[in-house]
Amino acid sequence: MRPAFTPRPRTVASAFVLSGTDPARGPRPRVHVSTTATGVPGVDSLAVERVVNGDLPLPDLNEAERELAARLMTREGLGAEEIAERLRVEPRTVTRWRAAWKKEEGEGS
């Protein structure tokens, strides 16, 4: 009996695409978004969790889900470029969101 064929990645880039992890960064703890707590209407917590963890294929998110995912990825230390790529937005959008969050935090204190 022949073993099942398993293609091996030839480059680091293809390894990232196949595994969904970036080998240059090393393992990162997974983020879990609570689906049992009272959620925000119109937000699919599981879709947000998949995007935050980089689980491929990445689902399409609505505006509220994108902003929540961006907040969670910012908290995890991801850069604006990587967040923008996962959310399919411009890096400038992520930068604007971050500036708005800082302004909100300043007003709330």
The geometry reads as globular
Total beta strands: 0
- Poorly predicted spans: 9-20
Question: For the residues shown, what is the average pLDDT?
Answer: 77
Largest sheet: none
List its salient traits:
109 residues, 5 helices, mainly alpha, globular
Q: What report would you give on this structure?
A:
This protein is mainly alpha-helical and 109 residues long. The chain has five helices and no strands. Helix 3 packs antiparallel against helix 4 (80-87). It is globular. Residues 9-20 have low confidence and may be disordered.
Chain-wise SSE layout:
Elements: H1 12-19, H2 45-53, H3 63-75, H4 80-87, H5 91-108
Helix pairs in contact: 2-3, 3-4, 4-5
What's the short story on this structure?
51% of the residues lie in helices and 0% in strands. It contains five helices and no strands. Residues 9-20 have low confidence and may be disordered.
